[in-house]
Design goal:
Distance between the termini: 40 Å
Helix content: under 10%
Number of helices: 2
Strand content: 25-35%
Length: 161
């Protein structure tokens, strides 16, 4: 880990880019830098309004959990498919660099969390492509689709309209 005079912390990452987050004091911090304001599982990500904001990174930046033979990214205690993580990435980055990769929608994990926990969310049961039960959660023009996997609400995809 190396620090520069500007306070930017660069940490090694297996992803092509280095994901950075803007904390509440408006200084740039890397995903593993220290910040006393942070209550997040990803130190360095500040809090606005007293809540920790989950780190916004790429698939390779997150710890993984395997359930029922599928691998999920653990983002601040919530599980996401690789497709969902790719959908959250900034749209300016284009399509994920893997076969069948998805293009980004510029939706942060903090906004996904807000959609899933807000009293203003419209949640509706829907079916997946194979008839599996899923739930659609919508606020405004953003829709988050989740599915129960082994007792965990897994984020399957993010849709913008």
């Amino acid at each position: 880990m190396a620090a520069t005079a500007a306070g930017v912390i660069v940490t090694p990452s297996s992803s092509a880019g280095i994901a950075m987050a803007l904390d509440a004091s408006s200084s740039l911090r890397g995903p593993m830098s220290g910040n006393s304001k942070s209550r997040s599982a990803y130190p360095g990500v500040g809090s606005s309004q007293g809540r920790a904001r989950p780190f916004w990174g790429f698939w390779d930046d997150y710890p993984k959990v395997t359930l029922d033979g599928s691998v999920y990214a653990d983002i601040a205690g919530r599980l996401y498919t690789q497709h969902a993580v790719e959908r959250m990435s900034p749209s300016s980055l284009g399509t994920a660099a893997r076969p069948g990769g998805s293009s980004g929608r510029s939706v942060s994990p903090a906004f996904v969390e807000e959609i899933l926990t807000s009293n203003h969310t419209v949640s509706t049961p829907v079916s997946g492509p194979n008839g599996e039960p899923r739930t659609s959660h919508i606020i405004g023009t953003v829709e988050v689709i989740t599915e129960d996997v082994a007792g965990h609400e897994v984020v399957i995809t993010i849709i913008t309209r």
